């Protein structure tokens, strides 16, 4: 009987809340529970009589003022004991957690060493990425340099500016046009200039506002002939200039005209940079074939 909660037997809340019930409220709860557990209503329950006797005993204890007070004190002591037990468990769990944390910290690697290892790992990865990027650009540059080499077969071997180079600038034409309509492709330029002689190579610069290209002719005569006529569509004609005018021998000196300079200015600094870059690649390709 010590483990029985008499308030719960009557269907009432226990603990501090149960101690506040009046005798009238306890009697009312007993009558309601007695109607529910009476053996006459539980003919099929073999424990009906025993359960009803427990109900009566709980009611007799709670109805008696002294017995009820002792029972309330017993419940209070049990609650205090349970609370202290929970507190001890909580403290014990905290002590165990702290001990485990100290053990983990004791076996954990030094923070400074861990930072150094992380720094070295990142530095290695960065070094690998830099090497990869450099290799990628090197392969890209090699692939770009190989294009003029394939397209520059048969370029003359006369010297330019007194140096032994594999390109005759007098055979090279600078061609430019406005980027309107269909524009000009390398094949179309080759077809247009082939009317004046065999075309060795055509290199087009990709620009947004103005198209430009270098056309390498087989002979100087073909290059000269191509510069003496209007070419392309009338709505978008080609501006054709020699990269280096053909030298005229045994001819009286003439006053230099500023017309080529004026036309060169039409091409622009960006075209000149492109032209120099392509010429260098063409010259290197011609040297390798020697």
Automatic annotation (TrEMBL):
The record's section on SUPFAM superfamilies has: Chaperone J-domain (SSF46565), RNA-binding domain, RBD (SSF54928)
Among the GO molecular function terms of this UniProt record, one is: RNA binding
Keywords associated with the record:
RNA-binding
- Which domain of life does this protein belong to? Eukaryota
- Please state every residue range assigned to the domain named J: 5-75
Q: Which PANTHER family match?
A: DNAJ DOMAIN CONTAINING PROTEIN, EXPRESSED
Protein name from the UniProt record: PREDICTED: dnaJ
Taxonomic classification, please? Eukaryota, Viridiplantae, Streptophyta, Embryophyta, Tracheophyta
């Amino acid at each position: 009987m010590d483990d029985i909660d008499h308030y719960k037997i009557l269907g009432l809340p226990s603990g501090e809340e149960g101690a506040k019930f009046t005798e009238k409220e306890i009697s009312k709860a007993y009558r309601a529970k007695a109607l529910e557990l009476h053996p006459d209503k539980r003919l099929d329950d073999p424990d009906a009589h025993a359960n009803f006797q427990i109900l009566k005993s709980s009611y007799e204890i709670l109805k008696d003022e002294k017995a009820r007070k002792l029972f309330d004190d017993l419940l209070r002591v049990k609650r205090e004991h349970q609370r202290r037990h929970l507190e001890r468990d909580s403290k014990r769990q905290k002590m165990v957690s702290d001990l485990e944390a100290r053990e983990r910290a004791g076996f954990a690697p030094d923070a400074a060493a861990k930072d150094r290892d992380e720094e070295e790992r990142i530095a290695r990865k960065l070094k690998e990425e830099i090497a990869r990027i450099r290799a990628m650009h090197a392969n890209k540059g090699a692939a770009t340099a190989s294009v003029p080499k394939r397209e520059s077969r048969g370029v003359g071997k006369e010297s330019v500016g007194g140096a032994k180079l594999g390109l005759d600038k007098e055979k090279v034409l600078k061609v430019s046009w406005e980027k309107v309509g269909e524009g000009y492709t390398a094949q179309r330029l080759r077809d247009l200039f082939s009317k004046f002689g065999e075309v060795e190579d055509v290199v087009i610069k990709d620009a947004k506002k103005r198209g430009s290209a270098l056309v390498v002719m087989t002979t100087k005569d073909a290059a000269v002939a191509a510069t003496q006529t209007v070419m392309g569509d009338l709505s978008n004609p080609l501006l054709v200039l020699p990269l280096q005018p053909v030298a005229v021998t045994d001819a009286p000196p003439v006053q230099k005209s500023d017309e080529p300079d004026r036309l060169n200015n039409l091409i622009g600094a960006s075209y000149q940079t492109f032209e120099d870059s392509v010429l260098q690649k063409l010259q290197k390709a011609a040297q390798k074939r020697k």
